[in-house]
Design brief:
Layout: E1 7-9, H1 18-27, E2 32-34, E3 38-39, H2 40-45, H3 48-52, E4 61-66, H4 70-83, E5 87-92, H5 97-101, H6 112-125, E6 130-138, H7 145-155, E7 161-169, H8 176-179, H9 187-196, E8 201-205, H10 211-221, E9 225-228, H11 230-234, H12 242-245, H13 256-272, H14 279-282, H15 295-305, H16 313-333
Parallel strand pairs: 1-2, 1-9, 2-4, 3-4, 4-5, 5-6, 6-7, 7-8, 8-9
Length: 334
């Protein structure tokens, strides 16, 4: 399956699971979605089906893997292909302690030879495109020579798409949250890579707060696309404009109410098949009405009662309430 990544939702640990991706797909029919990072060891020794199962509606969906062992990653890539994912992405950007202890993620930016070996092993066993997500550097790595060398070595193995988070990762002394906020953003460094390697597809990531901001960066630096992470999770309705504004498609934008009702139906089906609790789905959609009157009450009603819920009726009830409240407010203002 060949598709461009003009816009994508970033992989986020404990956030972008299959329920979250189904929700995001309702908002945008064509945005590229990513799984959470899954370690190769987890797929080999853990609950593989639980980790890899997804809804076909999520496609195009990229499986993001973590690891540093070519043999294990090649096996994980085979699993990903057999489950029907669209691409495989290798995480070379995560700064978490758990990832560092496993000697993969961002620390592998210092070892482009190892990354190249991993990429080659995955390509040998999988027909899916292999891509890489990285930072502009790590620790004391030179942001010019270091990143250039990393991109050159890894792309020599046939990787032609890189998602670059425009911050360094500082592995000593900063938490993952701090690594998303403290190292300064340097979008121009990502632009310089694209200018130097125009033959590669370069996707920019990091600190982007809106669709318009992402488009401006793409235009300014002649990039191939942009990726939004936490803002898309906190304010998911921004995804509803992606198909029209970014991808120039004519699909009619769905209302928040329509999205919520679709999710209620999804909850009914999920519970009927005895796959888990309602909270595992509801938690992902709490930002749907952000910035609108009654949003706080809507979130509270869902959060406080979800443990008692056995189907999608709680979501239907809460959504009917907020829609009625918004309508009454609009009549008063009119």
């Amino acid at each position: 399956m060949i598709f461009e990544e003009k816009f994508s939702v970033a992989p986020m640990m404990e956030w972008t699971d299959r329920h979250c991706r189904y929700f995001h797909r309702l908002l945008s029919g064509s945005a590229v979605l990513y799984t959470e990072m899954i370690s190769a060891d987890a797929l080999i020794f853990g609950p593989r089906h639980k980790l890899l199962a997804f809804n076909n509606e999520e496609l195009p969906c990229v499986l993001q893997l973590g690891g540093n062992d070519p043999k294990k990653l090649s096996l994980a890539a085979k699993f990903g292909q057999s489950y029907g994912y669209s691409k495989i992405n290798l995480n070379i950007g995560c700064p978490s302690n758990r990832v560092q202890n496993g000697s993969f993620g961002a620390c592998l930016m210092k070892k482009p030879k190892v990354v190249s070996e991993c990429v080659r092993a995955m390509q040998d066993v999988s027909q899916l495109p292999i891509t890489v997500k990285c930072r502009i550097g790590v620790d004391d790595m030179d942001e010019v020579k270091g990143l250039d060398n990393f991109i050159d070595q890894v792309s020599a193995e046939g990787v032609n798409l890189f998602v670059i988070h425009a911050r360094k990762a500082l592995l000593n002394g900063l938490s993952p949250k701090q690594n998303r906020e403290i190292p300064p953003l340097d979008y121009s460094r990502v632009g310089a890579i694209k200018k130097r390697r125009a033959d590669l597809k370069i996707i920019i990531n990091g600190g982007i707060k809106s669709i318009q901001e992402g488009q401006n960066l793409v235009k300014q630096y002649s990039l191939d696309g942009f990726m939004i992470g936490r803002e898309a999770y906190k304010n998911p309705y921004i995804l509803s404009s992606v198909d029209k504004i970014v991808l120039n498609q004519k699909e009619k934008i769905k209302t928040r109410y329509q999205i919520a009702m679709k999710m209620a139906d999804y909850i009914d089906e999920f519970v009927k098949n005895d796959q888990g609790n309602v909270h595992s789905i509801i938690r992902h959609i709490l930002g749907l009405y952000n910035s609108l009157p009654g949003a706080k009450e809507w979130r509270r009603e869902l959060s406080e009662n979800t443990r008692f819920s056995k189907n999608g009726d709680l979501l239907r009830f809460a959504t009917d309430n907020i829609e009625e409240f918004i309508h009454s407010k609009s009549l008063i203002l009119a």
